[in-house]
């Protein structure tokens, strides 16, 4: 997974923007819902926020307050720093967050949680509870997906092929898994939930 996202860093936003390999994909309502997602992210109250697996900063730039983006990929962080100059960025591991207990009000993560297998999910949630009071998860909706879980083949612009573990969520199922909270967005493509964290 690490090598895949490093290799994909400079073309990652093609997925958001419908360019190159994504230009011909049939994604009804994708751009309208992406705009709605950006508005949902921007509407979060300003806070000390850690954006875990921030990637290219496509969503990071819409967060308000003191924002720190964390990613394992140096190239992702290079793109993110240019795209979200108001945030600070740090290279590090999501399952061993390099921050002190209670360092943030909110831990935000987008399209990361759904790539974690069971043991990784438990470690990540333990780390989230350690460093933050709230967890906001953006991930893929199960509304338009024929499956809830799969190993997904992916191809990059250079023709290289990868396999990535991926899950899709209904908001109520995601909230049940995370321990309760509220739905911020329930769409055909995206779900966003907010979960209070107890240490």
**Helicity, in percent?**
25-40%
Task: Decide which structural class fits the backbone.
Answer: alpha/beta
Distance between the termini: 29 Å
Radius of gyration: 16 Å
Could you spell the SSE succession in H and E letters? HHHEEHEEHEEEHEE
User: How does the overall form come out from the CA principal axes?
Assistant: globular
Low-confidence stretches: none
Beta strand %: 25-35%
Integer average pLDDT: 96
Number of helices: 6
Commentary on this structure:
By secondary structure, the chain is α/β, with parallel strands linked by helices. Helix content is 29%, strand content 26%. The strands form 2 sheets. Strands 3-2-1-4-5-9-8 form a 7-stranded mixed sheet, sandwiched between helices. Strands 6-7 form a two-stranded antiparallel sheet. The longest helix is centred in the middle third of the chain and has 14 residues, at 118-131. The protein is globular. The protein starts with a helix and ends with a strand. The relative contact order is 0.16. The model has no long low-confidence stretch (mean pLDDT 96).
